[in-house]
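QA checklist item 7 of 12: single-chain prediction sanity check.
[x] sequence parsed
[x] length recorded as 398
[x] structure emitted
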Amino acid sequence: MPSPPPNQDATPKVVRARFAATELGIRERLMVGVLAESSLAVAMNASLGKHVPKIHVFADASRIGTDLAQLTNLSPYKPNGQKSHIFVLGLIFNLTFHENFDWFLLVRDSTYINPFELSRFINSVNWNQPVLIGQSADDGSGRCMLEAGVIISNPAMQKLIQQRHACNLLASGSDADQLAFEKCLQLATNLSCINEYQGQSYNVWRVDGTQTAHDAINKWRTHDRFNNSIAVTKLLSDADASALHDHFVSVEVAKVDAAIAAMELELVELQKDTDEGPTWPAAVPAYSKPPNRYQVPTWEFFTMKDIFRSEPNQNVRPLEGKDRDDVLEVVANARQHVELEEPDLEFLQVRNGYRLFDPQRGMDYMIDLVYKDGSTQETMERRVHLCRMVAGTQLMNQ
C-alpha cells in the first residue's frame, strides 16, 4: 500500500452534513399561525400564504370540515376539555417553529390580515427585543387581543415556549378559550401589549357588528386608516375576506404606480445633469456609440409583407414567423397609442416601419401609420417611436 502524501492523514475523513442556517442562526423572517374555527382559514391561507415565508393552521379536530382537511399545512389537535393554547404552543415547540423565524403572528381565522402592510411593518422593525405587538384589551389589563392578531418577536416566543407550563392553571379555568390564550401570552412572557414599536404602528380596523365588510368597503375606502390597516376584524364569511383582499390589492397597486411615477420624475430630473441629457424611455441607456464608421448599426426596413435585411446576398425576405409576430405586436401598440390620443382618426394601413437592435437598449421601432380624419376626410400620417426594452440578459457560451 503506497504511503499517503505529505501533510495528509491516511485515515478517511468523516463527511458531516452542514446545516449552515442553523449553525449561523439564519432564520426566515415571519411565520403566521392561524387559529382556525371555520372555513375562513382556507381563505386566509389562500390570500396570505403567497406573501409570507410560512403559514400554519392549528384547528380543533372536531371542527375540521372538508375544505379545511385538504390543507397540507394543517395541524389538528383534540382539546379533551382543555384550552387550545396548551396544544397550539405544544405543536409550535414540537415542530421547532420557535427556532426558525424572527417574527410570529398568531391570529384567528375571522380576522383579515393585509399582507402588504404586514410585510411593510415586519421589514421596518428589529426582532431582537422581546415584544408583544397588537391591540390592547379594553379592560386595561395589558393583554393583546387575539382577534386583532398578535405579533411576537423571537425572544418573546422563546420565553413563551420555555414558560408555557405556567399557563397550565388557565387550561381548565372558567375563562373563554380566547381569553385564556390571551392571558397565557401575557403570563408566560411577562410582557404587556404595545401598539407601536420602533416608530411603526399596528393598525386595526374593527367592523361594526351591524354591517358586513363586503357591503361597507365602498364607504371605508376613503379612510386612510382603513387603507393602511394591517388587520380587519371581524369577518363573517368568505365573501368578506375576498372583497377585502381585492380592495387591498388595488390599494397596493395604486401605491406602486405612484412610486413608479415619482421615480420616473426623479430620473428625468437627474438625467438633466448628465452630459448626454435625458434618455427615452426613462432610465433606459442611450444608443451605444459605434467604435468606427464601419460598425454603424443599420435599421431594418419592413412592410407588412417583406422585411429588408442588411445581408450580402439577399436583402429582401418575406415577413413571416417570429418577425411577423414581433411586427404585429408593435403595430398594435402603435395604433393603440395613436387612437387613444386622437380618437377621431380612422385607421387605413401601415405604410412601413423600421427597427434597430441595440444590445444596451433592446429593440427600437419607428412605425408609419396612415389614418383618415373623420371630419375632413383627409388622409394623414402618424409616426410612432416604440422601444422593446431588454428585460434580462444571459451569458451564453458556444
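[x] summary fact logged: The chain is about 35% helix and 25% strand.
[ ] second reviewer sign-off
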